[in-house]
Amino acid sequence: MERDNAVKARIFAAGEEQTRAADSLSVPPLPTMVVVKRMVREHLLPMKGYLALSLTAMVVVAIMTGLLPFLMQMTSDEIVVAKNLSSLYLLPPLVALVIGLKAAAEYVSGVSQNYISHMIAAELRTRMFGSLMHADLAWLERTHTGRFTSSFLGDITAIQAAAGIGLVGIGQNLLKCIFLIGAMFYMDWLLSLAASIGLPFAFRQMRKQRKRMSRSSTRAFQEQGDLTSYVSQALKGIRVVKAYGREGAETGRVREVIDRTVEFAMQMTRVQTASGPITEALAGLGIAAAIFYGGYRGITGSMTPGEFMGFITAAMLLYQPLKALATLQTTLQTGVAAASRVFAIIDREPKIADAPDAPPLVVSDGAITLDHVSFGYVPETPVLNDLSLHVPAGTKVALVGPSGAGKSTVINLILRFYEPDSGTVSIDGQDLSTVTLKSARDAAALVTQDPFLFDDTVEANICYGTEDASLEDVEAAADAAIAAGFIGELPEGYQTPVGEAGSRLSGGQKQRISFARAMLRDAPILLLDEPTSALDSEAEAKLQQALDRLVTNRTVIMIAHRLSTVKQADIIHVMDKGQIVESGSHAALLKKRGVYARLYKTQFGKQEESAEPKTSAPPKATKPARAGRKTKRPATSI
Ligand code: ATP
User: Fold this and answer.
1) Contact 35, 43 (CB under 8 A)
2) What is the b/e burial string over 460-469, where b = at least 16 CB atoms within 10 angstroms of the residue's CB?
3) What pLDDT digit, counting tens, does each position of 86-95 carry?
4) Ligand 1 atom nearest to 401, measured from its CA
5) Does domain 447-522 fall into CATH 3.40.50.300?
6) For ligand 1, is residue 566 a contact (CB within 6 Å)?
7) For ligand 1, is residue 400 a contact (CB within 6 Å)?
8) How far, in Å, from the CA of 377 to the mean position of ligand 1?
9) Residue of the nearest CA to atom 3 in ligand 1?
10) What does the domain layout of the chain look like in residue ranges?
11) Binning pLDDT at 50, 70 and 90, where does residue 542 land?
12) Smaller CB count within 10 Å for the chain: N or C?
């Protein structure tokens, strides 16, 4: 037992840390009324029609429920006691009509409530996905994707339940309570007071449960986020898991998180399940008091059997909505905790956004300039230090240097994935922070070492970002990227699905599709982040021709570790510790015998040190040069 507790304590201590790491977005729940008001304003009021229908149906249900005790009273007094024959013909159809109307109104209210809650979930999911798509990379990278996935699915489902069953159900049951309590007070206010004996305790209890529910559901959602993170991480890294024989260890790790989710889910269940019976017990106290006092009045003759029956019917009918209210308020609290998490994502304003009235970038040549740029992903760790770099239009520039020197960061800033801390990045003399984000990103095509393909067809992947392209254009791009051959051999050609992240294709094939995508985009600037480094020399050689075509007539920045691939760049910049430490052609840099020469020697040995680069013939451009873009230099193979 002691050991069990120690194990449990360890799991939970570890859990605290893991939760903090995976869920940097953890937020305390917002006050219930703040969330309820916001949900009403932003999500319920726009659906006024359905809301009105649902509310009308709710009122009908409540009125019909409130009428039932009176009918019971009349039945008892007029039929049973007074033996009135006309009441015998009148009251049963009236009871049937009231119950029938109640049933029909319940149906209408149920369907409209569900429609409203589904629409709320749909709207929240769309807003959340939109926020994530527009969010800053820096912020997205700080939070585990599992946190987003669990919010997108689990949290919004909890909000849906709270909005549908909770919010509307609370309204319906509250109305029922009001009508029934009204009916009771109308019948006999003194007896009603006796029946309400348990109510103050019930309300106090409900408030306590709301607080406990808020705490447990926030933790349960956090654990759910962790669980999603672990599962997605383990599946993404399944090859590493298997290669290192960590299947059992990963299963154990996930089991620990599952144990914690069960613990917090059980805390919620205990609160939720207890709320109904506690209210029931307190309501039972009220009914007992009413029977005692009503019975006494009946015995002393100050109350007719019909009045007594009618009152007890109302008290019994009140029982159910009261119990439902107690349970529903805990559902509502779960929704409030979930909404606090979802709003933390939806309300996030991206820092990198269009300035008001920002004009679009006008690309004339595609020259890129970084002027005294300093930048760090985290404030205390600078990555680029006062870096200045000019890439003239139509030239091929290579960035080389040791790992971590900041080469990819330069590309990240040109694409405005991040904003420099100081200095400017401009294209054709226009500061990127002053033009629209879309126009700046449209000016460039990015090809990375690990091309990302969507789980869609080959055609859709080539067209990504250029959806209006015709099939002929797609085929021409694939042809230019030397991808047409293997695409033709795929079972369904251009319509073949590539699998998740392109898993049904080889590395070289995926890269050629990404080249075709960039070719089709036909952007004046091409950013190549080690596009061939994931391939072996043979596959790289095959890709070289496609790469040569891709770089033709564009301004190109190419990052490469293998110096053989950058020999023929117009200029090579060697970066180290966020600065350019050497610049020049391959031959000039070798002569300098500096950092580049040392790197080259490490890769190729002494004998090649003096080798002059061969100038290859400019490849045949498969696409005409872009209209309005001057090509200042002949296309060069890099
Ligand atoms: P490599 O050749 O290994 O790809 P690189 O020269 O391209 O390296 P960068 O990727 O620009 O280097 O990274 C420069 C520094 O910035 C590194 O120290 C790296 O750890 C850090 N860094 C890169 N991306 C991020 C990020 N998203 N968040 C925090 N730090 C980062």
Assistant:
1) no
2) bbbbbebeeb
3) 888 888 999 9
4) 6
5) yes
6) no
7) no
8) 9
9) 403
10) 31-346, 358-443+525-532+550-638, 447-522
11) low
12) N
